[in-house]
From TrEMBL, chains A, B:
The entry's keywords: ATP-binding, Ligase, Nucleotide-binding, One-carbon metabolism
GO biological process, one term: tetrahydrofolate interconversion
Record-given protein name: Formate--tetrahydrofolate ligase
UniProt source species: Bittarella massiliensis
HAMAP family membership: FTHFS
Enzyme class: ligase
Amino acid sequence: MKSDIEIALECEMKPIVRLAGELGIKEEELEPYGHYKAKLGQPLIDRLRDRPDGKLVLVTAINPTPAGEGKTTTTVGLGEAMQKLGKNCVIALREPSLGPVFGVKGGAAGGGYAQVVPMEDINLHFTGDMHAITAANNLICAAVDNHIQQGNPLGIDPRRITFKRAMDMNDRALRNIVVGLGGPLSGVPRQDGFLISVASEIMAILCLADDLKDLKERIGRILVGYTYEKEPVYVRDLEISGAVTCLLKDAINPNLVQTLEGSPAILHGGPFANIAHGCNSVRATRLALKLGDYCITEAGFGSDLGAEKFLDIKCRAAGLAPSAIVVVATVRALKYNGGVKKGDLALEDPGAVRAGLPNLQAHLENMRKYGVPVVAAINHFAGDFDSEVAEVARCLDEMGVPYALSDVFSQGGAGGVELAQLVCRACEEPGRFAPLYDAALPIEEKIGAIAREIYGAAGVEYTSAARQQMRQIEQLGRDDLPVCIAKTQYSLSDDPKKLGRPRGFTLQVKEVRLSSGAGFLVALAGDIMTMPGLPPRPAACQIDIDEDGRITGLF
Amino acid sequence: MKSDIEIALECEMKPIVRLAGELGIKEEELEPYGHYKAKLGQPLIDRLRDRPDGKLVLVTAINPTPAGEGKTTTTVGLGEAMQKLGKNCVIALREPSLGPVFGVKGGAAGGGYAQVVPMEDINLHFTGDMHAITAANNLICAAVDNHIQQGNPLGIDPRRITFKRAMDMNDRALRNIVVGLGGPLSGVPRQDGFLISVASEIMAILCLADDLKDLKERIGRILVGYTYEKEPVYVRDLEISGAVTCLLKDAINPNLVQTLEGSPAILHGGPFANIAHGCNSVRATRLALKLGDYCITEAGFGSDLGAEKFLDIKCRAAGLAPSAIVVVATVRALKYNGGVKKGDLALEDPGAVRAGLPNLQAHLENMRKYGVPVVAAINHFAGDFDSEVAEVARCLDEMGVPYALSDVFSQGGAGGVELAQLVCRACEEPGRFAPLYDAALPIEEKIGAIAREIYGAAGVEYTSAARQQMRQIEQLGRDDLPVCIAKTQYSLSDDPKKLGRPRGFTLQVKEVRLSSGAGFLVALAGDIMTMPGLPPRPAACQIDIDEDGRITGLF
């Protein structure tokens, strides 16, 4: 089979003006970035304000193997399949981060015959959103250190700065650094570190902001650290909310591209699904709902992380209500959850699939708790055995969950038609979406609700630091925010080794942080990596470009 | 008078497709970035390959005050004035760096009624070139540290890594840092630092590369450090030349915008004029020469830095020959060179102007040494006194240098017509351009030629470190490269306090570095700041954006 980049480069794309025209977008409402990418700005959003919304469909997944389970691929293929059914459907995805492209994972624009294109641009700089977020983040950091250097009138305690620098690169050497060395002209020495840009609070904010005004207010509210008197210091105290917002004036606008089969896809924003909420932007989702009768979107990692946050943070904040949820499962991931080692996943083992099925059951049961019809997609991989697929099918039949095999990776939209039919049917069922918990509850109760109801924990334990932080957040009057739990994506629990459907465990919360601009509390359960590293032989060593600009090795 | 951003936002710009059409560029040869910016790619460059070149005009300046003397403004206004004379003229400028926009200097897209637009976009992310350069730089750094982390097969000595990280931000706290802290999973601790992105060798390379092939080869040749055996380590040894080049596939293409009066301007690249060569890209200049009968370009700082490097590095490397050189002088800068303090520059003082004139004379005499006709422009500021201007005029008359008053800041092109006429006349004079020195000479002789002929030094002194570095460069067989001297821009000498026309001084060379990919040697004379800091009240505090996206405070 051809590589992703080979397939992508063979695609004859529609000019973006034509694609936009098919959606009823006028040429002057489009900011083109080359001939096949464009930004959709405020005038379009304003014009469509009173149009009724389409149906919102969320694609999520079970706990994955380290290689991922093709959630984005399924989302893209499902969108294409909807189009094959004659439905007016817009896909709304996260945009990829540059860092992982050069690391292990490669691109993040779908795969095989279910990709968004131009995939090489989307995986590289795209329309510059990630760079704008990085610059906005780092302007705040430069202003904080400069404030201290220039006499520190606010009295910022250099030991209590919580807002870190950001770079869109997998660079472990930047995780823990000391800045400000070199003498009195070169700053005040202090400990610092870099996050990968998708982990920046700026990314989370961009993805939750309604418009420029809301964006500027949220930026002003970012907590950067504390004074020597332990009083909070916000970005607005540094008087740079306007300048930081300026850097995001284009990044706030959603990006329009197309799938290999010419379906419209809006790619915008991409926060981490552990320390942030893991979904594309509210503006993109809302716009997709105005432009399409259906909007298919996805959220990062498994349903315990991405979907829970999509439902409890994003939908709550934006007043969105999904009409259906698709849970993607693969035979490989079920075998992994059933205890098979990474190296042995290619071997036929229906027993291991059976052993892993409780993981799928948990995700399906969890999603049903939100009052939204649930559909399962078995994402087909070339090496799957019929005996294994039969195990999954039996389980789904027993649970009464509608399901379809999806083979969009090798067939494109044609491989997802059955799934699309189920999704359309589910969207007609009466929904009564409600978030899992009331945001007004005490912090511990909110964390407890997610831990018990979604993760299956018996209880929650807090470090004394976490308890102190929760009291501080209460004192700041921000304990009424929803909670974003940061934990491993490989398990329903906070221990990546507890596969399947762990029970009776206690969630260990080490730290509770205030993402004051984004508007959620981050509870850290486990060591969460916010700056990845490169592997022994990075993907960068395979990537090349010839004198005619033809790229190879991107996958 | 209105602010720069107010003037810029009032401009009714031509759609970029129309501007390009006026230059004979077809729509499919254009990569639009919004409606008023576009990239010009290889197909256009290839189509115009056999077209005869226009006349190349370089705009340079005397030693400036810390506020700068309006070189870019004069360049833009001169281009507009040429258009008023009915000449087909294309302006070729450097693109601004984001960092200084938030610091002291503000924007760098001209000023008053001689600006390039959309100025707010040009000063913010523009078409993403700076971000692409930053990412390319930092991919190399991540790969170096990862190589060491993963067992270090090349034996890179962490104490001898010479290639630093980059960020497009004024952030002094990043000048000297320690990376790789936090234990065995987070890298190997070592000293490092960040450059502002314009100081990255990637920027210099982008500006000298002929095409993608040349770019990739140059990137492969970048020296990143040395092994424990003191053997050089190049980017190609890390096998990432292709991936780094991929990141620059769009950045290598020049950007088309327009002036306030609708003249075409190509903005592309902007390396520092001290540790790098300070001019826009070779590709942009070549393209402007194909598209226009005249190309007006500029080079950073005074003629001792920018022009010398333009002529001895860029023109030599690219086979370009300027037809005329414009030296910009201001009454303010002459008074500053005549010994007046910064705070007193607004007071009438023809005697101080007279005292500063030897500086102007030196720059004019220096430029004449290259065999190119020289014209002087007296860039008018609102507070100039006639008595002061008369002093400058008398000096130029005595030297037999054609000159004109230029008032493009407040009048646009109309304020530069007389200058444009002089420039056109100068371009008809027979030129016999030759670089100052033969690149095949020993390194000391090349440095000596610039020091004596251009700076007016009596001699050059080297530290023992510099001597050792020169011997090392000879051993690597790279001593045949031209020399890029990094020194202060405020004096012809290496001492910022020696204003006017210092004589008899000895240039102190502390260090000689190999910019192996760019293809020049950097001789450091004095402490050169490669990462600026923010002032006590950064420009960022004035910059704002309202809910309709209207920006204020950019200047």
